[in-house]
Amino acid sequence: MSLPKRVVLVGPMGAGKSTIGRMLAKELGYRFLDSDRIIEERCGANIPWIFDVEGESGFRERETAMLKELSEEPGTVLATGGGAVMRSENHALLKSDAMVVYLRASIDQQIERTRKDRNRPLLQNDNPEAVLRKLFALRDPIYTELADIVMHTDRKSPRLVVRQLVNRL
Ligand code: S3P
User: Where are the domains of the chain?
Assistant: First the structure.
């Protein structure tokens, strides 16, 4: 089996990118990278703080810089933030030497998996469900277009998703 140099996970908030990415990396003997967590470490602040102080555009600048840096790391599984596909300049960075996997989740699953979360500023409002619906309508075609593999995650354990993914890489 010849493995891709990198595996890049894209998809909406609550799709399981971090959980599945960590498990997949272990399975492949690759290093796991989580773009949002590395941005937080570098910045010394969490994502809500970055959105608060620098706005979403400030966060997106950091995200693009991070994707640039991480696109040069072979032997890695990268979990991206749900909005990483929204800048077209990021697309080449995501695709560079990589197998791009779209972890697809229904709106119901996204709601369920993000319900108690306080670290996602885009969902800290009166109607997070409406936000998730709007973002999904906008982003689903872009995730699909970029992806080499579309993996449905609804009603599947992370372990099962990883097993199915390993078979398709
Ligand atoms: C975002 C998703 C988040 C994080 C930020 C913005 C988005 O990442 O990057 O809050 O625009 O969908 P997760 O997809 O890991 O939650």
Answer: 6-168
